[in-house]
Amino acid sequence: MDPIHVRNAIGTTYVDAACGLRIDDVGPTDGTVVATIPRSGAEDVEQAVAAAQAAQPAWAALSLHERADALDRLADTMEAAADELAHLEALDTGKPWDVARHVDIDRCIRNFRFFAEFGRSQSPEVFRMDDATNHVLRKPIGIVGLISPWNLPLYLLTWKVAPALLMGNAIIAKPSELTPLTAHRFSELARESGLDGGLVNVLHGLGPEVGQALVEHPEVPAISFTGGTATGRIVAATAAPMFKKLSLELGGKNATVLLDDADLDAVVPGVVRSGFLNSGQICLCGSRVLVPTSMMDDFLPRFVDAVQRFPIGPVISEAHRAKVEGYLRLAVEEGGTVLTGGERGEGPGFHLSPAVVAGLPPTSRCATEEIFGPVVTVHGYSTEEEALAVANGTEYGLAGSVWTADAERGRRFAERMDTGMVWVNTWLHRDLRVPFGGVKQSGVGREGGMWSLGFFSEAVNICVADE
Ligand code: NDP
């Protein structure tokens, strides 16, 4: 198959980068070039800003209900193309088609339907005083920059696009250069659904080039970024002196805590899934499993057995596989034992079998740095206080899970974890109304439900004195 020729979606046109350069997009399943994309830069951002500026006022002038109806039409258009979107996502990420179809793409469609319905359900925000009435308005910001990673490409991008459009903004999206295909197809579907092209601009290329130019542009007053903590720091350093609104969803090193009453037969499948879904390349994956020392002999063989039966997938790129393998070598240097996994397997592509490491100090680099691959470290603990200290002992604070026979006890433990989100006896169980985001170096701000509507708008108060 010839590589797909991806162009930037700017206004009503599809164009190559102003510089004319292109980048290869390599599929992780067999290492072949599946597409080429424009290597965009500041000039392309300039054009996208002009297109967005032309389209946004008419969109902002519609009522929230009219915009919600447009989101539903976009969801219908995506639904009709869902199988094709899943094919593109599988090609770019290496995940199985049915996972792409029923995890990623179903959720993309749900993002639009959810925010459409959530928008319609909002009531006016009015605060009465003895002698006056306050009316809170949520005005569009204008143009918002959306920067997203490669692990759940369209899922995470549409999580931003839906509320951004709902609140009356035009968007300029910069998907990861490793996974551009669904963002490209999405830009076409948005136009097919009837949206003005200037509302959904998609620029392809490298983060430090086109991503950086987008963050630097003075006419893009808000940036929603999902990616690694180191990149988030660069984005924040660029945007903060310009007083841009900034939402940062960053990395994690999430703890999965088994309490001493946990029924191992019941919890091991969930612990394995939380560690290794999408080859461990989900920011919410539980990459450190904390187990009471008294249960370790019982836990480890069951866990390793279940991990060995978990499907092997490719990781996103050759470079990423080399990084993960580097951490496995480091684990051994740091005193750990690789109980299973870390093998490449036969054939092309960037496959790596799920790895379990035991015997590492909880303060070791492998147990505190984000690996973002199919590697889980297992640690014993003696008391709940010790488990809590280990769980909270990293610079990250994104998510975690607690597994116990006593849900109330699990909830009390969860309340003491320094993370933005904790699941008890479940994982990745998402209600789109609740706040999503991390504390410490896992991010700034929250998205989801009201938090997204708040971020993608400017809240303005009008206080009217009684007559
Ligand atoms: P990166 O931080 O490398 O990249 C994220 C995005 O930022 C990409 O589109 C990238 O482009 C772009 N980018 C890179 N440099 C800049 C820059 N200077 N200015 C603007 N944009 C830039 O993350 P990954 O793509 O490797 O994704 C993995 C990371 O994402 C993990 O740390 C993971 O934890 C985190 N993540 C967090 C989530 C959360 O909700 N908290 C959810 C999912 C992932 P390019 O790819 O072209 O370099």
Would you give an account of this structure?
It is a single chain. The chain is an alpha/beta fold and 467 residues long. Helices cover 41% and strands 24% of the residues. It has helices at 42-61, 64-80, 82-93, 97-120, 153-166, 181-192, 207-216, 229-239, 264-276, 296-308, 318-333, 365-368, 384-391, 407-415, 449-455, and strands at residues 4-5, 8-10, 13-15, 22-26, 33-38, 125-128, 132-140, 143-147, 170-174, 200-202, 222-226, 245-249, 254-258, 286-292, 313-314, 337-340, 351-352, 355-358, 375-381, 396-397, 399-403, 421-424, 439-440, 443-444, 457-465. The strands form seven sheets. It has a seven-stranded mixed β-sheet with strand order 16-18-19-14-13-21-22, with helices on both faces. It has a six-stranded mixed β-sheet with strand order 10-9-8-11-12-24, with helices on both faces. It has a three-stranded mixed β-sheet with strand order 1-5-4, with no helix packed on it. The mean pLDDT is 97. It binds NADPH dihydro-nicotinamide-adenine-dinucleotide phosphate. NADPH dihydro-nicotinamide-adenine-dinucleotide phosphate binds next to helix 7 and helix 8. NADPH dihydro-nicotinamide-adenine-dinucleotide phosphate (NDP) binds at residues 147-151, 156, 174, 176-178, 206-208, 211-212, 215, 226-228, 231, 234-235, 249-252, 283, 370, 372, 398, 438, 443.
